[in-house]
Write a structure and sequence with these properties.
CATH topology of the largest domain: Four Helix Bundle (Hemerythrin (Met), subunit A)
Radius of gyration: 19 Å
Structural class: alpha/beta
Oligomer: single chain
Shape: globular
Number of strands: 7
GO molecular function, one term: ATP binding
InterPro entries: HSP90_C (IPR037196), Hsp90_fam (IPR001404), Ribosomal_Su5_D2-typ_SF (IPR020568)
CATH class of the largest domain: Mainly Alpha
Number of domains: 2
Strand order of the largest sheet: 2-1-4-3
Order of helices and strands: HEHEHEEHHEEHHEHHH
Protein name: Heat shock protein 75 kDa, mitochondrial
Keywords: Chaperone, Stress response
Largest sheet: 4 strands, mixed
Organism: Bagarius yarrelli (Goonch)
Length: about 230
């Protein structure tokens, strides 16, 4: 694949302050223009590394970086891939945050979520309620686009085997913990919506139409006391 020299200059400019000692350069796709870091749960999950990140806004930006793989003798790694393979960020629970669920409550909730979704669930985030991780997610997105698969979200999840990362301190997640016992039906709808939202944010589900009925049910439930 031949890369336009203008694209090379853009990459060079975007990564100009990457430290010489760094073995990798990081990039992130599916970022909304004007929002940058705040719009990306994937950036949040690895910001502790304090690394420079090249943000991509167009579909073909991601495809270019997937093919390029290396630049200035540094491996180009997406934030999503780094999160999956980073052995220093295993499923550790930070018990020093008083605003979040206790470790026992978080573990109970994640066990319930795993049982409902049939997917792996781990704690990791600080601001966003949830995100999806899949190994080599950029390549997976490209595969889904080129194959134009019409699988349902459930079928895609079964094929992709995604992990749902949650924020045990987010209001949605804390409310979900309460609802799973007090109102199981509503909790199930909320969990499915959280999962679908994360799949859409990850670019693994571009058709939100199947969840419109559930959204209407959730809105109806939300208005029952008003």
């Amino acid at each position: 694949m031949q890369i336009d020299p203008k694209v090379i200059e853009c990459i060079k400019s975007g990564l100009k302050s990457t430290a010489e000692s760094d073995a990798h350069s990081y990039w992130s796709a599916r970022v909304e223009k004007g929002r940058g870091q705040a719009a990306s749960p994937y950036y949040e999950a690895m910001k502790i590394k304090d690394m420079e990140v090249l943000f991509c806004y167009e579909q073909f930006d991601e495809l270019t970086l997937l093919h390029l793989r290396e630049f200035n003798k540094k491996k180009l790694i997406s934030l999503e891939t780094d999160i999956v393979v980073d052995h220093y960020k295993e499923e550790n629970f930070d018990a020093n945050k008083p605003e979040q669920l206790s470790q026992q409550h978080a573990e109970d909730l994640m066990a319930w979520m795993r049982n409902c979704l049939g997917q792996k669930v781990t704690p990791r985030l600080d601001s966003h309620p949830s995100m999806i991780t899949v190994l080599e997610m950029g390549a997976v997105r490209h595969f889904l686009r080129t194959q134009q698969l019409s699988h349902s979200v459930e079928e895609r999840a079964q094929v992709l085997q995604p992990t749902l990362e949650i924020n045990a301190g987010h209001d949605l997640i804390k409310k979900l913990y309460v609802l799973k016992d007090s109102n199981p039906d509503l909790a199930q709808m909320l969990l499915e919506q959280i999962f679908d939202n994360a799949m859409i944010t990850a670019g693994l589900n571009d058709d939100p139409r199947p969840m419109i009925s559930r959204l209407n049910d959730l809105l109806t439930k939300a208005m029952e006391k008003h």
